[in-house]
Write a structure and sequence with these properties.
Radius of gyration: 19 Å
Largest sheet: 2 strands, antiparallel
Number of domains: 1
Shape: globular
Structural class: mainly alpha
Distance between the termini: 8 Å
Strand content: under 5%
Helix content: over 70%
Length: about 300
């Protein structure tokens, strides 16, 4: 029961409290470390950048994941109640469902107020693309896409690694945190252009770690659409459009979301998912409800499997 209690407490913390201030957030500390390492990266040498980038990821994951494990293992030997609380705090730091939906909600409010400059500014908290030229349909679509994709990054994947290592006690929250470190690397330097070589290892490792969680999470999204959307259309669009994105994983939850909401999600010049009209501002809320249901379904099924196998 202990891993399930830790996971349930972590989910409750995230839904009730949201994100910690950056200065108190372990993932924020990792982000500062990545920024410091990136500033010292070699330039104008693709091979050196590639090696340095791989070393950055490997060493940071080993250091942060190892530190989580050692500290929680010590606490577990001291007091089990303190361990459950500490493990839940570490695991909660890898979740961001409430903050994800709050950020999307701010975009929705700006769109409903017809404040497109404000919506573009709020959207920058969710996406890395240039938002300055996006019109209303593409602003709403980008918000929906981000919630769909980040449901995997911000909950499904860390919960997956927690549950995978649940029998190993303190290794479970350490594994979830290690995943989040890799995902933070990818979000900061895993892009083409300036980070083509420096961020390649982070991007590829993140793709590898997300491969199975993205697909399992998408199954839960389709199942949740049976109540909160159109499950049949979600499965149809998923089967047809999941491979249209450059990312081997992002197309799965995004295409399923497009089908579940009966909308088209388009990033001009890159992909077009679904075959309905562009989403309206109100469908951002619908996507957030679908993301929450997907997350809770995944955690429930995973927790039951963990109990049965323990």
């Amino acid at each position: 029961m202990e891993p399930v209690a830790v996971l349930a407490l972590a989910i409750g913390m995230d839904l009730l409290l949201g994100e910690l201030p950056t200065r108190f957030h372990p993932v924020g500390w990792v982000g500062h470390l990545i920024g410091m390492l990136e500033a010292r990266a070699p330039v104008r040498s693709p091979a050196a950048e590639l090696l340095y980038g791989a070393a950055m990821v490997a060493l940071t994951v080993a250091l942060s994941g190892g530190l989580c494990y050692v500290l929680l293992d010590r606490v577990a030997g001291w007091d089990r109640g303190a361990y459950i609380l500490g493990a839940a705090l570490v695991t909660k730091s890898t979740f961001a469902i409430r903050e994800l939906c709050r950020a999307a909600g701010r975009v929705k409010l700006r769109l409903r107020a017809d404040d497109l400059p404000g919506a573009r500014a709020e959207l920058r908290a969710l996406v890395s693309r240039d938002t300055t030229k996006l019109g209303r349909p593409h602003l709403a679509a980008a918000a929906v896409e981000s919630v769909a994709e980040n449901t995997v990054d911000s909950f499904i994947a860390p919960a997956f690694f927690f549950l995978l290592f649940a029998p190993a006690g303190p290794l479970a929250p350490a594994a979830a945190f290690s995943y989040r470190v890799v995902n933070t690397f990818d979000s900061m330097i895993g892009y083409h252009g300036r980070y083509e070589y420096l961020g390649k290892a982070a991007a590829r490792f993140d793709d590898l770690l997300n491969w199975l969680p993205a697909r399992l999470g998408t199954l839960c999204l389709v199942a949740s659409a049976a109540i909160l959307g159109d499950a049949r259309n979600a499965g149809r669009v998923l089967g047809r459009d999941h491979a249209r994105t450059e990312s081997p994983n992002a197309g799965w939850p995004m295409s399923a979301a497009a089908g579940a909401l009966n909308v088209t999600l388009e990033k001009v010049g890159h992909y077009r998912l679904g075959d309905g009209p562009p989403p309206e501002a109100t469908q951002i809320d619908q996507m957030c409800r679908l993301a929450l249901a997907t997350s809770l379904l995944f955690a429930s099924v995973g927790g039951i499997i963990s109990l049965l196998l323990s």
